[in-house]
Fold:
Amino acid sequence: MKKAKYTDKDLIVDILTKSFESNQSVNYIVKQDEKRLERIKALMEYSFEVCYLFGDVFISDYNYACALVLYPDKKRTTLKSILLDIKLILSCVGINNIKKTLAREALIKKIQPKESMYYLWFIGVDPDYQGGRIGSALLEELIADSGLKGRPIYLETSTLKNLPWYKKFGFKIYHEAELSYKLFFLKRELNK
Structure:
């Protein structure tokens, strides 16, 4: 895995848009209309920008998988972050979904512990290459990187079939929330 360059943005957004097209958690906040796919793309562009500013963006060696990592303790309110939030509302969430989206984000913040963390916001593999250990190899490298940084990994998933996969890598469910779908909160402690 390598740190992504800003010029990798289009490729990363494309991988994540395809990977999360039918994801319940993503579709919960994205306005559901004829522009749904464009709105998912806008969410991934937003997430890339936020992680590029306040975290890390990684891409696999052969450019088939990527991960967006956020360090919440490093996130700051800046003019750029405010403009990104406004763009997200207008191009992805929609005015009618603001309340629901803010409530979901507040719930996540309330449940997440207040510690220095390696927040795995998105990890995705190009659908044409899924099932070939590319995602597993990337996750192994992310686990090693989190260890070097001394930060436990946190994430949420709504995808039931991914739970055994995460558990295989030492993640444990520490909370479940019921929205219009079940959201699982996972944590992987640092290796001792």
